């Protein structure tokens, strides 16, 4: 039998025209989404240690802390700008009422980018995503707005987030798409319906966010009763107490498989994502430096076919209880859904 895991040190992959570490850093957790957040001092230490360790792909957005995350990156690591590929996002912004809004109008995209450049203390953003499709603006118009930013030298490439294969093709005709970002992990398989194949066909990098299922697949998060106010998991069906208790049962076999393979559960989950295709990179996020180091241990990790098959069987779309988003969250995305998600909406 082949070794369950082999390791390629210093492994890298293409992110559009850029070469990056297979494991990148999703920076959202440092400012947004999970209730409490690190101090800026702690976040600065994590960001700098991540670059020291070998992370060369950092992902942020205008939405994260309504500018705080971009500002944090600008303040703490802009002096190391040549050491990482920088991705940010527009369209999800702060509305006039102070709450999250979707605005994909070209003029708003331009204004959001101008502010991002100031926040990030940089002259150019390497990869600029449309964070969500705006139902009131044709995706071609939004993609074209980023294309003009490319022409102006403010952005290098266009990315899309949580969009369907049809939206990807339409945007790509307007301006070449370098990367598509969607939630992807053992328990969220929606990209397998068609997005992964569309990206491969068009030569687009697929970027997997929440690859450890918002900490579920790490095995270190087993109690939803004390989630902080503002933690986005409170609104997600899979993290509702009854559903979560049933989902925890799935971890027993997965924990045993990781132990047999000689790695942590988080590393097994990340390696599984990377093994789904060589056009895939992953961007786990964390506020914890030890977890950040642990995640990077999956960079270059290759799983045997036996391990992949067993992981597939243990946790998949068919045995996870609950949709990934509630009705409001699902309404913002066009990524294809499974029939059971449509039935449970």
Task: Provide an overview of this structure.
Helix content is 37%, strand content 17%. The chain is an alpha/beta fold and 345 residues long. The strands form four sheets. An eight-stranded parallel sheet has the order 4-5-6-9-10-11-12-13. Helix 1 runs parallel beside helix 10. The longest helix is centred in the N-terminal third of the chain and has 15 residues. The chain is globular and about 50 Å long. The mean pLDDT is 96.
Which percent band covers the strand fraction? 15-25%
The major sheet is characterized as:
8 strands, parallel
Mean pLDDT: 96
Shape: globular
Count the strands? 14
Helix content: 25-40%
How big is the Rg? 19 Å
The run of helices and strands is: EEEEHEHEEEHEHEHEHEHHHEHEHHH
Which helices and strands, and how do they pair?
Elements: E1 5-7, E2 12-15, E3 18-21, E4 25-26, H1 40-53, E5 57-59, H2 68-77, E6 85-90, E7 92-94, E8 100-102, H3 106-120, E9 125-130, H4 139-151, E10 155-161, H5 165-174, E11 177-183, H6 195-202, E12 205-209, H7 241-248, H8 251-261, H9 265-274, E13 280-283, H10 289-296, E14 301-303, H11 305-314, H12 327-330, H13 339-344
Parallel strand pairs: 4-5, 5-6, 6-9, 9-10, 10-11, 11-12, 12-13
Antiparallel strand pairs: 1-14, 2-3, 7-8
Helix pairs in contact: 1-2, 1-10, 2-3, 3-4, 4-5, 8-11
